[in-house]
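Case study 2.
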Amino acid sequence: MTNRRLIIAHTIISLFAVLRPFSSHAEGVLINSDYTNSLQMLSTLKASEKAIKTITADSISMSCLSHPIQTHFVGVAHGLLIHSGIEKIIAALDDFVGYKDLFEDIEAIEVIDMKTHEVGGNKYFKVHTEQNIPVPFMPNAHVTTDYFMTRLSPTLVVYRYQLAKDPKHPNKNDVLHADGVIVIERRTEKETAFYEVDFLDPNLSGIASLGSSRIWPESVKGFALSDLALRNFAEAKTVENDITQQRQKARKMARNQLEEKVIDKCLESKISADTYLKGFSETKGVSNRVYLPPNTQAPLKTEPRL
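Prediction:
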């Protein structure tokens, strides 16, 4: 499940706040993966600018990223151009409750907590998801994820998300690791570049023989369908009293638009995740991290629980 706005005249003060995002330490216990450090680097301003430049076409770009040892550790870099304003895409990404209608296989979703910076508009969400696993005999997966949305510049927005421990669901993370970054960039008033990197380490304990062979193809297919559904929804004319049906229509359209050859090419041409990410981690002179040490973030405004 993936997922995912705006040109505002910033004063010097608000621009400074944009570059001072949330501290992960303040929001709970995050579960690091082998790629957490690389993804944090990818979330910085210069690395994000470099990554988003790889998105140049309307069709989906997908690269399957392999772990050096763990064959079931899924990694996918993917993205496309969306002919819509960045604000509409951000609104769709922030509307987690709407994911149930927009994206495949989501049974239930709950926003447990949400905070917003008083100045700068950066956001934090803690989200619990129950997701259908399209593999025989596998129960629904329960996953809690922390999302950090940061406005790195007037045209560049980053979402950093990671598996988290949640006191409300202490034993309900049915994956070992979930780690990712979304970068969206305003190209014009009606064109936005969307780029995402996801890493998923499923918990196959006791059921590896039943479903392991489908983990990679189903995961890659799911990421592609999410990208297409998001694009369809963002590019459609918004009808305020029909949002649910619009989401469902966008999801249905995505199924018809999916090209299996794109999935097959990605699966047949896996590249090293370490090699892929190294191209961004070597970016020099980066100082604007998504995560800062404790007590350095701007004041937070707590929103009512949804």
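DSSP finds nine helices and ten strands in the chain.
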